[in-house]
Write a structure and sequence with these properties.
This protein is 25% helix and 23% strand. With 235 residues, it is of the alpha+beta class. The chain has two domains: 7-50 and 150-229, no CATH class; 53-146. A four-stranded antiparallel sheet has the order 1-9-3-4, with no helix packed on it. Strands 2-6-5 form a three-stranded antiparallel sheet. The chain starts with 6 loop residues before the first helix and ends in a 13-residue tail after the last helix. Mean pLDDT is 85; it is low at 193-197.
Length: 235
């Protein structure tokens, strides 16, 4: 089941330049749903993000500092929407301390920071400031993550990609030059020739468009939604 796209939305969607809705009568609901699921999955992987709200439990490594960066300390690159509980746990999973939001910590988009108020536990007080104790996977965070709603460009990109899977590039308003499918390559023993029209890697580089789906028009919609939070350096 898709997370932010719908069969009704797909059937009502009009690609740019299309005067009427597209005809999906040759496909079952299950086939349309499969195309939407695949499009969402590909876009999620390409953008390193999930464009919907989901519940999860995350285990982060404490480093004796006042910040927990989920992308770096928990290998979890998604935005924090809400936290249900934040706890320090022991090796056996038992709870050593339960942190209180707005008392012990505050949750930001991609990290949790210890609050600056007077600490209520000696475990959280090192050198006169609050900190999360050192450990491997010793801070357990339960909450909701991702996005409250998918950006409009992401939804549009999902429908366009699903249309291509079901009806082909022409129905999405794309020609063969939209992706690399318009390129042809011939290989000889001592050299290779590539010719034709297509969104080559060099043209993408010149336009600063990442290669997410292989379709330049779709990747332009997605380029501002690539999640780079796990590339930040922390100390």
């Amino acid at each position: 089941m898709s997370n932010y796209s719908t069969i009704a939305g797909l059937e009502a969607f009009r690609p740019s330049g299309s005067a009427a809705v597209l005809d999906f009568s040759a496909f079952t609901d299950a086939e349309e749903q499969e195309a939407l699921d695949y499009a969402e999955e590909l876009i999620s992987e390409g953008c390193n993000d999930k464009f919907y709200s989901f519940a999860d439990t995350v285990y982060a490594d404490g480093h004796g500092r006042a910040y927990l960066f989920l992308p770096q300390d928990a290998n979890f690159p998604y935005k924090i929407l809400t936290t249900t509980s934040v706890q320090e746990i022991d090796f056996d999973g038992s709870v050593l301390y339960t942190y209180q939001e707005d008392v012990d910590y505050k949750a930001e988009e991609y990290y949790i920071r210890a609050d600056d108020s007077v600490p209520v536990s000696i475990r959280n007080y090192v050198g006169g400031v609050r900190s999360f104790p050192k450990g491997s996977g010793n801070i357990k965070i339960v909450g909701t993550f991702g996005h409250t709603s998918a950006p409009l460009n992401v939804v549009k990109a999902t429908y366009l990609l699903a249309i291509i899977y079901l009806l082909g590039e022409g129905s999405a308003g794309f020609g063969t030059s939209s992706g690399d499918s318009g390129l042809k390559q011939e290989v000889w023993k001592d050299y290779t020739v590539t010719y034709g029209s297509g969104a080559t890697s060099e043209s993408r580089k010149n336009k600063n468009v990442p290669n997410i789906t292989g379709y330049l028009e779709i990747d332009r919609l997605l380029m501002r939604h690539v999640n780079l939070s796990d590339l930040m350096m922390t100390v």
